[in-house]
Write a structure and sequence with these properties.
This protein is of the alpha+beta class and about 450 residues long. The chain is built from 15 helices and 22 strands. The chain binds ligand MV4. Ligand MV4 binds near residues 200 and 203.
């Protein structure tokens, strides 16, 4: 097992990794930017190294500085968390070349899944259904029109280097297609340095359902239950739950088998998520995330497995702790962001003047915030993840409403009041929602 893990991240996920390390008897090394000198991950880790100025590009994204920090502290592994360098194949490769384990899949797998057109091919070859669409990157406008005619409108253009909604365009007829294709490609080139575009049939009312998997060196792939992440605004998730109110036991079994086949096809190691679009009982692979995700706690609550510990064990070459996790109960997570829903979700950095965290039966809060903490303006605006667990959805919903009401955060604007409103919505309460829910909800 690893002796010392450097955490190349900040915020709540850095704390989450430190907690797993502590329980496993592993030393932890925090890295931090000048803006994070008073952050809890710096205080809670066994050691901490300042890696540079506030801007991410000078600190949490600066590969040489992070590798140097690992070398001077004799860390034998690096945990990237989510965001920042978590899905950077070059970083994973440089860790390995420096004799430091990267806690994640091998660099080839990151590349294979990070290129979304290549991922579609990999998944189709593994026998898992993908949406009808182009066989790979579309070379020009004429090919885009040809492919769209074959697939049928509406279609969606996606950047092969994108993911998570960046650089997408929905096209309803051939008149828009040539222009949309050119614009999408130029945008993708600017955003990702890769203008490659592929095309798929567009589903108007899908659910976003994802399956958590864990892969091990002995070849075993453990699948967990699904998470329903349909409640999003501009591709930012606001609330996630497990199980999905829309997934039957039969569909769950099928989705878990499909996700396992995808992971097996790439000999997946560590924590991964296979995202599907589900509509009218049909499901289609969308993309695979090769990292631990923000919303992993809902899977932890319903499986009673510590996914961080399993991820670390898997990367250290150990066998799975539990071959067949039992799924029991219902978990919901609200992402509490320092943003103002009344002002178009503008970030609201600054000093948290009062902070009271809810507790009691079935409540978990993953946060790095405290009273007096100053949220820096340089990073994402997640302040806390509030997770409610209950025997069934009804109980989890009641606990979440109760806990949101108890949560006191003063000094910055937060999304709490919006999440309270979502939890009072009758359609949401009935489990009757899809990825278009937030659009309708915000226009009510
Ligand atoms: C789609 C889709 C409908 N059809 N692809 C958004 C995030 C990115 N990963 C892909 N996304 C979508 N892809 C096809 N073929 C609808 C979305 C989508 C969406 C997906 C999940 C959650 C919220 C969403 C909101 C708008 C669009």
């Amino acid at each position: 097992m690893f002796k010392r893990i450097l955490i190349a991240n900040r915020g709540e996920i850095a704390l989450r990794v430190i907690r797993a390390c502590r329980e496993m008897g592993i030393n932890s090394v925090a890295v931090y930017s000048q803006a994070d000198k008073d952050a809890l991950h710096v205080k809670f880790a066994d050691e901490a190294v300042c890696i540079g100025p506030p801007r991410s590009s000078d600190s949490y994204l600066n590969i040489p500085r992070i590798i140097s920090a690992a070398e001077i502290t004799s860390a034998d592994a690096i945990h990237p968390g989510y965001g920042f360098l978590a899905e950077n194949a070059q970083f994973a490769e440089m860790c390995i070349d420096s004799g430091i384990a990267f806690i994640g899949p091998d660099p080839d797998t990151i590349v294979r899944m990070g290129d979304k057109a290549l991922a579609r091919k990999t998944v189709a070859d593994a026998g898992v259904s993908i949406l009808p669409g182009s066989a790979g990157i579309i070379k020009d406008e004429n090919e885009a029109v040809e492919q769209a005619e074959l697939v049928g409108y509406p279609v969606i253009l996606k950047a092969t280097a994108g993911g998570g909604g960046k650089g997408m365009r929905v096209v309803h007829s051939s008149t828009d297609l040539s222009r949309s294709f050119t614009m999408a490609s130029v945008e993708a080139e600017m955003a990702f340095g890769n203008g490659g575009i592929y095309l798929e049939r567009y589903l108007e009312h899908p659910r976003h359902i994802e399956i958590q998997v864990m892969g091990y060196e002995d070849g075993s792939i453990i699948s967990y239950g699904e998470r329903d992440c349909s409640i999003q605004r501009r591709h930012q998730k606001l609330l996630e739950e497990s199980p999905s109110p829309a997934v039957t036991p039969e569909l769950r079994k099928t989705l878990r088998e499909a996700a396992t086949n995808v992971a097996r096809a790439v000999k997946y190691i560590g924590a991964g998520t296979i995202e599907f679009l589900v509509e009218g009982g049909e499901f289609f692979f969308m993309e695979m995330n090769t990292r631990i995700q923000v919303e992993h706690p809902v899977s932890e609550m319903v499986s009673q497995v510590d996914l961080l510990k399993e991820q670390i064990r898997a990367s250290a070459g150990e066998k799975p702790g539990n071959l067949n996790p039992r799924l029991e109960g219902h978990a919901i997570e609200c992402r509490i962001n320092a943003e103002d829903p009344e002002r178009g979700f503008m970030p609201s950095p600054g000093k948290i003047t009062a902070f009271h965290v809810p507790g009691g039966m079935g409540i978990r809060v993953d946060t790095h915030a405290y009273a007096g903490y100053i949220i820096p303006p340089y990073y994402d605006s997640l302040i806390a993840k509030l997770i409610a667990f209950g025997a069934d959805r009804q109980e989890a919903l009641m606990r979440m409403r109760r806990a949101l009401d108890e949560f006191i955060i003063e000094g910055v604007s937060t999304t709490i009041s919006l999440q309270e409103k979502i939890l009072r919505d009758s359609q949401f309460a009935d489990g009757n929602f899809d990825t278009t829910f937030m659009e309708h909800f915000l226009n009510k």
